[in-house]
Amino acid sequence: MFSSIRLLNKSTPDLPCRFVSSQVKTAVVMLNMGGPQHVDQVHGYLNRIMTDRDMMQLPFQNTLGPYIARRRTSEVQKKYAEIGGGSPILKWTNIQGKLMCDRLDKISPSTAPHKPYVTFRYVDPLTESTFEQIEKDGAKRIVLFSQYPQYSCATSGSSFNAIYSYFQKKQFPKDTKMSMIDRWATHPLLIKAIGSRISDEINKFPESDRDDIIILFSAHSLPLKAVNRGDAYPSEVSSTVHAVMEELGYAYPYALVWQSKVGPLPWLGPFTDDALKGYVKQGKKNFVLVPIAFVNEHIETLHELDIEYCKELGEELGIKNIRRAAAPNDHPLFIDAISDLVLNHLQSNKPVSPKFLLRCAHCTSSRCHESKQWFSNVCTST
């Protein structure tokens, strides 16, 4: 299945001149939530989140959502100010995309030139502007590449639904082929990249404390209502955790914990801060936090994990050593992973996965049903 991995480190001759033209043959569209580049974008970002029914369902959402966004804007702006004034997620996604497409141009000349495009759900560059640019560039093939390794209806699903909505307002170009990579929770090179990040942090602990380390894999939580509906996210995050621990030889005790709960409704736990408090009560003093569902740095890693948990909560609890593993970012193994994913996808005859087309067991969303039907019709192998 991953036979093409060996191609990633194999040198190839320079591309023929026809692949160096300005014409884009393959557009690789990197889908993610996004983050404000500066504090002035925070309100619009929050407003889009709070009014997106794929992300959350609120009563009187068109009224209550904007109200919550306004109330939270000042608090969230302060957090972004504390990490440098904005999110680095666009910077990292651009770096990852360029490195990936440079690699793809070398290992897959038949589908070159490849160009990365970033599509964020809640902040620029938004779906509309990205697809307008793809059309202007004349791409003949579009690969929708979710940057959430583990699929959730609230994240990946919302991004795909936004693309569906965009093409309800205009005709999909007949001479363009589109396909998708919707999940990749256990890709072996992703697992190796995360394992490498963890080992880097463990090696920074005093040798005398390494036998006492607990690895806490922290992922964005999900409302229990979504979990009970049948959202695949918790099981897919768990599969990533177990694959990483297998890569590490199960050498350390570990737990999967959940962060970033919003609002009063029940969410999936145990929560990251509560888990730290519980383990400290048990006498544990050394921790590595791992952002298991994030492929690049943003507010949840740089503020919530680094400032709120490692620094502030760590000091409050008197934790001896607490470190946070870096997100994959531009780790060479991670660039190999995303390059291999796209390469295998381009070589396959599976434009859309059967799992993507399966709705949650208790799904009642007509939008979800219509979106999946549309992708099933548009994403074809011919």
TrEMBL record:
- CDD domains annotated for this entry? Ferrochelatase_C (cd00419), Ferrochelatase_N (cd03411)
Q: What class of enzyme is it?
A: lyase
Gene3D superfamilies to which the protein is assigned, alphabetical: 3.40.50.1400
- Describe its membrane topology: Peripheral membrane protein
- Please give an example of a GO cellular component term from this record: mitochondrial inner membrane
Query: What InterPro entries does the database record attribute to this sequence?
Result: Ferrochelatase, Ferrochelatase_AS, Ferrochelatase_C, Ferrochelatase_N
Q: Which reaction does it catalyse?
A: heme b + 2 H(+) = protoporphyrin IX + Fe(2+)
Subcellular locations according to the entry:
Mitochondrion inner membrane
Pathway where it operates:
Porphyrin-containing compound metabolism; protoheme biosynthesis; protoheme from protoporphyrin-IX: step 1/1
Q: Which UniProt key words apply to this protein? A: Heme biosynthesis, Iron, Lyase, Membrane, Mitochondrion, Mitochondrion inner membrane, Porphyrin biosynthesis, Transit peptide
Q: What is its EC number?
A: 4.98.1.1
* A Gene Ontology biological process term: heme biosynthetic process
The protein's GO terms of the molecular function aspect are:
ferrochelatase activity
Query: What is the similarity comment for this entry?
Result: Belongs to the ferrochelatase family.
What role is this protein assigned?
Answer: Catalyzes the ferrous insertion into protoporphyrin IX.
In its UniProt entry, what is this protein called? Ferrochelatase
Record the organism. Answer: Cinara cedri
